[in-house]
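Hey, does this match?
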Amino acid sequence: MAKILGIDYGKIITGLSITDVKQIFAFGLNAIPTKNLMNFLEYFLVYEKIEKIVVGLPKKLNNQKEILIESEIQKFINKFQMKYPKIIIERLDERFTSKMAFDTMIKLGLKKKKRRKKVILNQISATIILQSYLTKKEKKINNS
């Protein structure tokens, strides 16, 4: 079974996560400069079999999309799908993932200096997005 990649797309830093081969658990993979995302994925996809990518869908509390970052995400998705049409892309509401990631950093005992690092925050956010997707998928299977 191929793995699923999770993406927390940011203007400057993009967090990445990946599942195990059984698609049960999400693990933090990396956080990279967004400008290098396509180059990273081109290299990464040579070595990892990915069947699906889950990209966070930024929404405001009133359920409206965050227009500015969403247009950048759409550009990325279109570019990616042109190059890799066989890899499925799904979206998942990412409201509160940054807050959850920040709370996780506190619970892990990370000092204030480390908590300010967007790299760690984005990586944890990507992991939360992907694990939320896996949990949602599992619930659908169990309710069928």
